[in-house]
Amino acid sequence: MNALKALIMTAPDEIREQLRGLTLKALINTTAAFQLPDIVDPGSATKWSIRSMARRYAMLDNEVIELEGRLDELTRKLVPELRQRVGVGQDVAAALVLTAGLNGDRIVLRHRSPCCAAPLRFRPHRVSRIAIDSTAVATAKPTQRCTASS
After folding, report:
1. Angle, CA 100 vertex, CA 67 and CA 140 arms, to 5°
2. Are 116 and 144 in contact, with CB atoms under 8 Å apart?
3. Residues 45, 102: one domain?
4. Could you give the CA distance from residue 84 to residue 138 in angstroms, rounded to a whole number?
5. pLDDT (tens digit per residue) in 95-128
6. Which residue among 14, 40, 69 closes a domain?
7. Which domain range does residue 88 map to?
8. The whole model's pTM is what?
9. Separation between Cα atoms, residue 102 and residue 96, nearest integer Å
10. CB 82 within 8 A of CB 107
């Protein structure tokens, strides 16, 4: 998206004016639908590039939506109990499954943050509050900060 917006910023004035003020969705739809018979000048070359980028963006956006749907289905099948917990969506559930595998007891029974289980040399110096809170939400048990020094 940044590359597309940068290309639009450097486009000739008439192209920029045509696209000014459009929402993201309208920008993608408008530019993906550009009709150009041939490249005959810098303006038409820019429009070809913008159209190409917009079509690629739309294609990738649709693919992301499809993959998120599949990830949602998969995590609901693999770890339904985990997905029912407050604050655990498809991304958090998938990350925990990748970390613990299908050994749900490794997730549910753990009382401390994951960094405390790591060997001393691999422990981070600081554990963010978000990571601790995410672990607490996923395990439904309070977690503690790692206090061991490396």
Report:
1. 95
2. yes
3. no
4. 10
5. 888 887 766 666 653 434 454 444 444 445 454 4
6. 69
7. 79-139
8. 0.61
9. 9
10. yes
